[in-house]
Amino acid sequence: MKVIIIGAGIGGTSAGIALRRLGHDVVIYDQMRENKPVGAALSLWSNGVKVLNWLGVGDEVAALGGDMATMAYRDGRTGEILCDFSLEPVTAQTGQKPYPVARADLQALLMRTFGEEAIHLGRKVVAIADDGASVTVTFADGATDTADMVIGADGARSLTRAYVQPEGAPEIVREYSGYTNFNGLIPVDTAIGAPDAWTTYVAGGKRAAVMPVAGGRFYFWFDVPQPDGVPYDRAEGTAPLEEAFAGWAPGVQALIGAIDPAVSLNRVEIWDITPFPTWAKGRVAILGDAAHNTAPDIGQGACSALEDAFALGIAFATNTVGIEDTLRRYEAIRVERAGELVLRARKRGEETHAYDPAATAAWYESLRGADGVGIIRGIVGNIEGSPVNLGAGVL
């Protein structure tokens, strides 16, 4: 079977690896002209790492991952430690240690593993046509390619998502999550946080955090609640952070001071999409952000895309009635689970960003002296329903 995948991101390349391992002829097209992922790094929780283990790249991913052994919350203004606890229970309960990884490193690994000779960049798909026997994609330059199946891993503004929706279905629109995220990579600095800790400073609905990734680096991010569309010029560098976090703790000032905007500083308005039920039509289906554009508040966006790749691979390895039938089964495996994670992330974002100030104040108070049991319960709760666990849940 020939498969066209639209999109060479985490979801598209992992799905490509899974389908190639089953013996299918897979080609990937992406409109980007070079590997420049959006966002500096990502959280690979146990469910995401397990999929990568299944794809045969577990050792390489472990080498890319940071040693995140503990988790700490600090008062953003004073720097006081609110709580500090081990993340070992996550590994013990799920059977896999989580790793934060630099997104470009993981992307490069997946592209190499899939086979860069079959990834064609600078190719924008503008139309999809399914005649019942094959699917043809048309590119912006007028060229076409035809395959037995098309998978749209073409991101939050997906063309494929619009194609698979039923006639008369409500328009699917992205919704602003209420905050802007600044992120990047810096050298590890103990003035900010322990080298093996996920450290988060919180106050006033804002967050400043670091996670360790390979190479002696911290992945950092800041959340700034504000309206969408606030102007920003890259020449401003860290000025918006200096303003938003003025008077915050010395660790936060050290973090801002360590940022070199010319090397690593991204600014991303955070949007999501309310879950919807249709992921497949005929010989065409969607995965990744095209299917479940998710805010990063529970760190499951990339993991959910990897779960899509796992479910798609398992579906094609075990079902033989036909492509259309198998894609419907893939959809049935993923729609409820992925949609639930989108809504959990949205709810978490509302709690952490002071959209309800009383709720956020109560969360801050709950962190003071916490032993981590409740926080770990939430992290594991996002993992235990993963299809990669084959129904075993957690131990």
Automatic annotation (TrEMBL):
Stretches assigned to coiled coil: none
Gene label: hpxO
Alphabetic keyword roster: FAD, Flavoprotein, Monooxygenase, NAD, Oxidoreductase, Purine metabolism
Cited InterPro entries: FAD-bd (IPR002938), FAD-dep_Monooxygenase_BioMet (IPR050493), FAD/NAD-bd_sf (IPR036188), HpxO (IPR047712)
Segments forming domain FAD-binding: 2-342
Pathway as given in its UniProt record: Purine metabolism; urate degradation
Family: Belongs to the FAD-dependent urate hydroxylase family.
Broad class of enzyme this protein falls into: oxidoreductase
Species classification: Bacteria, Bacillati, Actinomycetota, Actinomycetes, Micrococcales
Protein name, per record: FAD-dependent urate hydroxylase
Known cofactor(s): FAD
Highest taxon in the source lineage: Bacteria
